[in-house]
Amino acid sequence: MTDMLLIALFAFLGAAVAGLLGAFALRLIRHRSFVVSVTVVAAVAVTAMLAGTLAVAWAMFLSPHDLSVVTTVVAMAAVVSLLTAVLLGRWMVARSRDLTMAARSFGDGGVFAAPVEPATAELAALTRELAATSAKLDSSRERERALETSRRELVAWISHDLRTPLAGLRAMSEALEDGMAVDSPRYLRQIRTEVERMNGMVGDLFELSRIHAGSLTLTPTRISVYDLVGDALAGADPLARELGVRLVGDRIDAVPVEVDGKEMSRVLGNLLVNAIRRTPADGTVAVAARNAEGGVVLSVTDGCGGIPEEDLPRVFDTGWRGSDARTPPAGAGLGLAIVRGIVEAHEGRAAVRNVTGGCCFEVTLPAPTA
After folding, report:
1. Burial class (CB in 10 A: 0-12, 13-18, 19+), 360
2. What is the b/e burial string over 47-82, where b = at least 16 CB atoms within 10 angstroms of the residue's CB?
3. What is the pLDDT of residues 337-360, one digit of tens each?
4. Phi and psi torsions of 299, nearest 5°
5. Could you tell me the pTM of the whole model?
6. Does residue 298 contact residue 265 with C-beta atoms inside 8 Å?
7. Going by DSSP bridges, is the β-strand pair 349-355/295-301 parallel, antiparallel, or unpaired?
């Protein structure tokens, strides 16, 4: 028993010395290739076995012949171990290089293409994560391109819509200044109309900037949908009468919601004005409100004839105004973008779908807490 303990002690001391030297070597080469590290690990294992064997052999006073036999066996094992370590390291480095090249491709703006060669479980997991990240980046790039396109359209349309009334204001003011205006009151009324129109556009831009900056402050209160829709219908009735459009609001459930009354009135007002202007004379704009699974749904249905399917995903984008974007009074294409921003600030969602003869805008608001 004592001999076995001594053999174990000498073997441990020899292996410990080899292990400490190996750990020191690994620290020195920690920034080198994986092949070098794997080779050092294999060398440490073989050296530990050799050191332990030599220590035991020295303690047991083995003959030189027996010692040479043991050393030769260990040396052959060392050669095979080192060759195996080098092959494993080179294979790992090759797989890592393939993964690096694939990652570089989608980092430069391309799409990540996973290497075809099989890899270890860890590299395979990393490959899957990179593929998922690539898909997210591609989606983000697509959204960024769409937003950039919307911004450019918005700048172009705002410039156009501002330049036209400004030119008219300049001409009318010069006519008034020179005393050339035949009907001065009419000129003054027209000036006021154009100023109010531009003031509305600037107000929409300011509201949209608050939404995009995340500085829109809501003051939610419990209010009946019936009252909310009733106020919106009363505000839109003069425009509907002027354009010959009939407003219908007889399918409204008196359900409560917790919203900012002012902001939600703006949402309904924007939807109603948009629907009235897109509906031909003698047409109907219907407003409804109902309880649904997951919240309260407000809907505005118009008679615009429908929206092309390819344009439906862009309806709530900033600057979108449809095919007749240049025909007044289309506005700057901010109304529906403001609708979506305010609704999402209430943790709701806005959607649109085509129905017979027109389209239906739906706003879903969370059900009020008990």
Report:
1. middle
2. bbbbbbbbbbbeeeebeeeebeebeeebeeebeebb
3. 888 888 888 888 999 999 988 899
4. -135, 145
5. 0.56
6. no
7. unpaired
